[in-house]
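Q: My labmate handed me this sequence with no annotations at all. I'd like to see what the chain might look like in three dimensions before we decide whether it's worth expressing. Could you predict it?
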Amino acid sequence: MWQSYINGLLVAIGLIMAIGAQNAFVLSQSLRREYHLAVALVCMVCDAVLVAAGVFGLASILMQSPLLLAIARWGGIAFLLWYASQALCRAWRPVTLKANDTQARSFHSVMLATLAVTLLNPHVYLDTVVLIGSLGAQQPVPSAYALGAASGSALWFSALSLGASWLAPWLSRPLTWRLIDIGVAIMMATIAFQLLVGGF
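A: Here is what I predict for the chain of 200 residues:
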């Protein structure tokens, strides 16, 4: 159970921490204290729903087909290794995560923008539904894996929303992102190896 939970936690954190529009948006709202807790909560809930849909939806399908399960396994290994290589490339030439300076907006417009940067990004479905879902279907305890993945999302967005003022100077340093990306690469490669040898 705990191995499944930890695998879900590490995969989710590794995917979410990559610099992207959603992270930049959450950090921006948090630094300006503009509905930042609601923004973070929306991101957490969306991730949890998508992860659950992927893990429990794909699990029932994959378990009925050895061929699809094998495709998911090798596809997951390939994607994890590719993601690890991308993280190492980013570590070689690190960038930074900075908040955008925009004018104040209403709660309604902020919530719509949060949903847009979360749900209109095709990668969110690849990451949460397809990748996390297919890996979760192969866990001894898929529910623990889904909980771990949701926990990873909650931890990351909580850190961004509650610790933005403290995190901002660190997230603006290339060295910080170099270390983060090296850590992400190690996590992804380790999980790919576990999937390869059937150690889940």
